Amino acid sequence: MALSHAILVSLLDCPSSGYDLAKRFDGSVGFFWDASHQQIYRELAKLEAANHITAETIEQDARPNKKLYSVTESGKTFLMEWLDQSVSLCPIKDDLLVKLYGGYLIEPDAMVKELRQQRKLHQTRLVEYQAIEDRFFPDVEALSQKGTYQYLTLRNGIQFEQGWLKWCDEAIATLQSFVESPE
Amino acid sequence: MALSHAILVSLLDCPSSGYDLAKRFDGSVGFFWDASHQQIYRELAKLEAANHITAETIEQDARPNKKLYSVTESGKTFLMEWLDQSVSLCPIKDDLLVKLYGGYLIEPDAMVKELRQQRKLHQTRLVEYQAIEDRFFPDVEALSQKGTYQYLTLRNGIQFEQGWLKWCDEAIATLQSFVESPE
DNA sequence: TGGTCCATGTAAAACGTTACATGATTCC
DNA sequence: GGAATCATGTAACGTTTTACATGGACCA
Fold this sequence. Notes:
The first copy, chain A, is mostly helical. In chain A, 64% of the residues lie in helices and 7% in strands.
């Protein structure tokens, strides 16, 4: 149910086309939600049918035309009703941990490689987040309320990734002993 | 696709009925995967049809009969093929962060309350994880390889929850200033 | 001429959620 | 007498993923 809310929050921040949204969900919005362009287009169609957003067609000459979506009053009300409800913990689903749980079935060496690979991916993401922090939030004291809220979501992403790096290091160090001296 | 792998990994660790699995997914397996009993029964039927698991009916007098599932050779092969493939980062979807991103639309006071509530939920989960750590992993040095792998998944859960607590505290402290002196 | 970017979508299959359904036993 | 536990499922619906589809502009 929350994809619609993620889209509304993002559109409220800045009216955009489906294509733009898809890119944002792949970038900055990506630190709290993930969605493919197919999902986004379908959800936009639904939100428009429900009058929560309106589209304005922008004619472009060197490029395909695009539809610029904005949130309506009804959409804002719909979003605020959701904001007023309390949320529960999000369910955990992590392929890597399933794999690790059954890790004893494969070579310790292969598992260490996999963890190193994961560590690299998290490292890359952390660098991206930190670049956003440096570029868009250089002076935290000077932020508006809205800016502060957005900054806090970014901080969450940064802390998460740092946690991952720390855990990967711990796990790699532990498994290293199996590689050196297998039981 | 990974629900099947999570079930196989868990069944390989210990043959069980659907009911038992559902409870484990709600408990210890819950720190890396989440699934309802309906999903589990459906997936078990599929896995049995694919010959990845076999069922043995256990007659019980004071209780309903149950089907005890075990992983077949074919199931083990299927799982190991998956274990050999490298996994990508798991997509992030977090209601709380969507809410926070649009947090400027509601009262700072309401947002602080919500964060306190979340903090409590994470705290509860952390205590559960630590209880598992104390009960089942009192001597980390003495663990078998299999035990070590399972311990590492638990450590991941613990670190995560500690990260959440830290972030919640940071966020609450930041928002507190809005409650005391609104812009 | 081959790839990436812009821009929008459809369709089918897999996966997840919610509600419904049953029935004995055990504990308070 | 009522609730929880054990134990299994079905059905409808909603969401997500994967694959397919189009077509011009721009760059090397």
